[in-house]
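Researcher: Here's my situation. A collaborator sent me these components and asked whether they could plausibly form a single complex. I don't have experimental data yet, so a predicted model of the whole assembly would be a useful starting point for our discussion.
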Amino acid sequence: MSMLVQARGLSKNYGSLRALDKVDFDIEEGRIVGLIGPNGAGKTTALKAILGLTDFEGELDVLGHDPRISRRQLMQDVCFIADVATLPRWLKVSDAIEFVEAVHPRFSRERAKHFLERTKISQKSKVGQLSKGMVTQLHLALIMAIDAKLLVLDEPTIGLDILYRKEFYSNLLNDYFDEKRTILVTTHQVEEVEKLLTHLMFINNGKIVLDDSMEGVAEKYAEVLVSADRVSAAQALNPLNEREIFGKKLFLFEGVDRDKLASFGEIHTPSIADLFVAKMQGAVQ
Amino acid sequence: MNNRMRAYSALGKREIWEHKSFWIVPAVIGCLGLLLVFYGCGALLVTAHQGMININNNINFTGLDRAQVVRAFIIGSAAFFNTIMLFMVWFYLMDSLYADRKDRSVLFWKSMPISDTSTVLSKLFTGMVTAPALMLVAVIATEIITGILIIIVASFFSVNLLPVVMQPGTIILAWVTLAFALIVQSLWLIPFFGWFLLCSAWARKLVLAWAVLIPLGAMIVERLFIGTHYLSNAIFGHIAKLFTMVMSGHYTVNGVTIGSGIEIGDKSDMVASHSPIMTLGSLASVFAQPEMWIGIAIGAIFVFGAIWLRRNRSEI
């Protein structure tokens, strides 16, 4: 296992706003890491720093490069899709393939064509003639045809309908990801990536508030539905979060022994969305 | 190295894919010009047919400098193409580092392994070399067709223009001169091109306003508060000299610094060339002008600024 990204004391200020506050994190090869956080939490800033799109303070090593200095070399091994539909409207599909083939040493025209054949996209079309979903398909086809070490996705499916969104992630998982590849993804639609991720990172107010593997999350966090008469006993175990469901209370515990919780009822692993809400509310208090 | 060249050529092509006007507009101008020539020839033939004009078929070409006529035609007919092309390049450069930031496609271009330096230089190259080259192709095609037409029409009047027109050496030399002139013109205009690139990389909106109002404001401030007008002289003088000195070639200067503006001081300091149009020699002498090199230096500073902005501040 080699380390692809190492951040130490990564900070970034926009005027008086502290977008990243001395953040440390590592991303190892072969992981699919979900970077989740509310708007303005610093997700995009962190990604931009990794991609060399913004200046920052602290140390950041991406595949042995300082992204601020050697962006061109970095981009041979790192791909990204930042937001949907960032392909220019005037670009013809066949020209897009020609361009990427000419500038990217790791691009395979055959692979790109193979991916495009499964869509309705014609090589003669211009990007402006395609629907938003098709533009994303095209972008993904171009990017997946690049044999990169790290793929960074920033809200890759925002504004797409559900069919395209499902297809986007299934393509990524089935046709692209393997143990040599690493994916870093941010999204608001956490349910979509839930089953995809191997690792989870929560970011809030410029700080990492959770950084763990999905197995680690499943071990550490537990959700129990507690009947009304046992609520105070459950509260005594210091839950991270509680909410009412059908007259019962659903508690979310962090780091509490599962044996202790078993007496209250059936234990579940919380969904990322519920865990996220609990963590963010915890941060507010 | 081969891969690098391939990447650079893709960057160049990319610009033409986006800005097809660089070949469409010269082609359209050429077609319109030919249409005029056709119309003129047709009108001439019709009126001649009706016996309203009578062309003397004993035209005497001896008093005529035949080479001069051909040169004047070849270089002169490029003037209109060139004027339009310069405006296109102006607007292209202002747009080149701005449009992709505005539609966010900059994020796609930046995801490719291309340095920001290469990106910015590819835009400059398109303005300085690709656009003039495409224009030159249109000019040459138009001139060849026009020449053939004129010869054919003249033959209807039993006038043999072939010996006048067919001067391969002169023609090719004129085209080479034209190509050289376009290179000199691009180098002469580098400070402007660099400035437009800088504004294009800088502005969050209204690039044209930045590009025009900043120099204009600086001129006004200089005039009002310092009372001098060096800046306006430098800017307008530089543009004026493009036409008076670079393009006309009327004044070949031997190491003499010329004052700003069209008014050129003491003519005794000049050696007027034989020809009222530029020659390879008159064009080469532009490189002896300090102003050429000062302009290139200023242009380089602007281009570096544009590269820095492209790297560090690409978000709108």
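Model: Some features of this prediction you could bring to your collaborator: Chain B touches chain A through 29 residues (CB under 8 Å). The first strand of chain B starts at residue 251 and ends at 252.
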